[in-house]
Structures are given as structure tokens and as C-alpha cells.
Amino acid sequence: MMVQNLSQGMTLTSVSKAYGATVALESVSMTLNPGQVQALLGENGAGKSTLVKILSGVVAPNNGTMTLDENDYAPRSPLHARHAGVCTAFQELSLLPNLSVAQNFFLPRSAKGAGGLIAPRQMARLADAILAEHDVHDISPRAMVDDLSIAARQRVEIVRALHRRPRLLILDEPTGALADVDWLFTLVRRLTAQGASVLFISHRLAEIREIASHATVLRSGRSIATVRLEDVGDGDIFEMMVGRRARGEHRPPAGTDPGANSQPLLMANDLCGQNFDSVSFELRAGEIVGVAGLEGQGQRELFRTLAGLMPPSGGQIVMQGQEVRLRNPRDALFKSGGIAFVPEDRKSEGIFPTLSTAANITQSILRRFSVAGGINRRGERRAVANVSPQVELSDRYLNFKITSLSGGNQQKALIARALITGARTLLLFDPTRGVDVGTKEIIYQAIHTYAAAGGSVLVYSTDLAELFVLVDRCLVMYQGGVVADIPRRSLDEGHMVGLMTGNLAASWHSPGTGCR
């Protein structure tokens, strides 16, 4: 994979963008040097997405200038940007789900054979070679994108951008769905060693410090500073991003066991389903239990089975002492105290894009406001006004179409939707994927407040550090089974990674008899 060396990299000078009276970016200036990874940091709504769209040719700035390798750079479209050498792997994946991996690689053009007809075999062979070149061997070029997991789609998005030999590669939240970032970081280092620039956008400061040397911080649409990462602490970065010091963690005191004297709200007894086998655990009132595992270990299917989205093939689900059959999410929500589920992909599985934020929050409980075939809007608004402060979602956003909100505020709305149901158990699958550090703190606080009031939480995260902040104990999944149940006082990253990868013997194992 060869790229041209850049003599000057990319320079932005006083770049601004407004949508009517709303200023998204104001006089942003920064320089991206060749052979260097530079991070872009900021809260959701700080202007990062707008800047990415400008660099990628999706929108044009109102003011300011950009140069690429000392030449004026003003892309008129994503295709124009790509031809200039600027490629982007978007957070909101740009793949077409109704096409194959190979077809997505070659858009907007397809490989053609004799007579100008599309040659599917040739396209698949070329795509297979592209995947292999980027160390991806477990995704078929013939697979339909819609059938892939979120993590697999993310890898396809990244490979597609890398394959185009970029002079500037923009990675927008690339690790949000990846359980293992080593693959990506190896490819990034390979690219920068050949002289390309990389703009890396992430909310995970530990990853940023591992891969980037410098960072530019945005706040309220303005570039606050560009810093050398080794010269600043995480607290300094947080303060530049949000304008205040971090509040600190919200975990209960070490040694406490919130669920010790409470009844189980949810139990799985030898539960089996697609990609998981003989899973047993208890989830008690007041308890937050984490789930850790690499991609594809059965955790996604386990959560969806508990949420009523997938049928189990064996075993029991017990809610408040009563065995239940969950045929759909309504059963899960309205049986024996209720289970509310927040899925991993808010764009395709979470939000109703044509509705307002308030309507999105109340979708699960609309029947509570049904009056003579209509909706009691006043009662609906009161219910939303009661729950939105729990996630610090501003009242001014409630009437907005939800797609006009930042990703962080959309995620707050989805968690508010789960809270408003009154369910005793929350299932949260990667609930802070792609949100900023300030929003993460708000979500952590909401989770702990919910548990302190007697609720129970089962939470999966691709970020181990997040689980250490959140949970009272953590289940580790490997090859479809729960191989360890670790109390918070014993959580250790090295030990957990060993269990997640099968390189350590399990310290605890579900005693199930097997269903397969």
C-alpha cells in the first residue's frame, strides 16, 4: 500500500460553517502533518461532524480556506475529495446495506467484464484480495452488508477507505464497534510510515494516547487548542472540551455489594440460543453487572434473547421468581417488572428518524396516553419532562426532530425511553459508543441512580475501562459461554483479556448441561 509523501500535509485556516442562524463551526484552524496521527476531540455538538463533512466534501464551508500539499483544497463532493486523496471512514457507516461487501468496495463504479457487463466473480476476487491485504480474513466479499455485525461493517468501512490509498485518512469514531483495536492501529501505523496524514476522532482518551501524538480540541464550534498529548493530562483535555473539571466517578464505595440482600429480578438458567450455550447468572435489585467479551462470543445474541428479539433454544428466563416466555420485546417490557433494552446501533435500531425527540422517548408507552383513539399530548409531555432531567437532556431539544440532535443527545433520548417505561431491569448494549466524555459521565450517573433506586442493569461494553467504572461484578464470555464472574474488587484488565481470548483458564464456569 503506497501513498505519495506530503510536503505540507493539510492546513485549515479560519474555516466556518453556519446553517441559517445556527453556527456549527467558527474560525477553526488546524494543521495535519504528513506521517502523523492527530486526534480531534470535543463533546457531541462541538463541531467535529461538521468538520469531517467539510473535509470529506459532503458540505462546503461558508468561510475560510484549506490547502492539501500546498494546493488549494475545496472539494465539491465526496467523490471529488476522494480523487484529491482524502478518504473517510464514517461513524455513521456509509455502506449500502442491500449490496455485497465487494459491490460497496467499488462504488460508484463496478468491475466489468466483456461487453461492459458487471462481472460479479471478478469483483469478488478483487475484493477478497483487498480484504486480505488489510488482514481481514473472516469476511466474505460476497456477504451482504445487512447481514454483517456492526463490528464487521466497521472493518469493511475502514478497509474501503484505506484501499483508496489516501493522502489524508479521516477515521470518525473507528473503534466504537471494534473489540480489538490492534488490527486498526497496525494499519494506521503502516499508512503514516508511508507519509500519509491521519485525523483520528474518538472519545476514548487511552486509545488516542496510544495512536496519536497531537490533538486539536473543539468546543462550541471553535478550535480551543492543539496540544502535544504527552504534555497534558486527561483532566486538562476534559476541561478544554467541556469548560470544567471532571466530576469524578460515581461508583459505590469499594467492598460494598449492592445486590447481596436483594432478590433476583432476572435469572438465566442454562439459557441457550444462537451463538451462546448454557448461560446462567442472577441479576439482583440494585446491582449493575457487566458483560465483557471479544466480538462474536454470543453476547449480542444473549442480550437480544433476554430482550425478546430472538427466541431461546433451551433453558429458562426467570423474572422476579416467575419463569417467562418472551416472544417479543413487548413481552419483555410488560412481564414481571419488565426489561427495557437499549441496542448498540441507535441509527438503525434505536431512533425513529421521522419523529420528534419527545415522541421517540414515549414510543414504548404510548398506550398510557391513549384517549378515545388519540394521544393525550399534555400527559405525554409531563412524562417526558419528568424523565429527561435524569439524562440531562435539555427541554429545548424535545420538539426537535431527533435526527437534528447530536449523537450524544440521541443516546440520552434512547436511555430516557428505557427509563420512562418503569422497567425494573435495563439491558444496555454498548450504551456509550460514539458519545463524548461529558455525555458518558451523565449516562454513568443515570445508570447508578437507577440501580440505587432498586433497578438492575446488565451492560455490555467494548471498553473495559468503562466496565471498571460502572459495574459491581463482571461476566466474561468466551465461545458462547460465561467463563468467569468477577467481583469489582478483583477486576484486572490483564486477567480479563486473558479470559476473553481463551489464554487463561476460567476461574468460574456456568454449570449448565448444554443445549446444542
UniProtKB/TrEMBL annotation:
InterPro entries: AAA+_ATPase, ABC_carbohydrate_import_ATPase, ABC_transporter-like_ATP-bd, ABC_transporter-like_CS, P-loop_NTPase. This is Monosaccharide ABC transporter ATP-binding protein (CUT2 family). Keywords: ATP-binding, Nucleotide-binding, Repeat, Transport. The lineage of its organism: Bacteria, Pseudomonadati, Pseudomonadota, Gammaproteobacteria, Enterobacterales. Residues 10-245, 260-504 form the ABC transporter domain. It holds the Pfam family ABC_tran. The keyword ATP-binding applies. One of its GO terms (molecular function) is ATP binding.
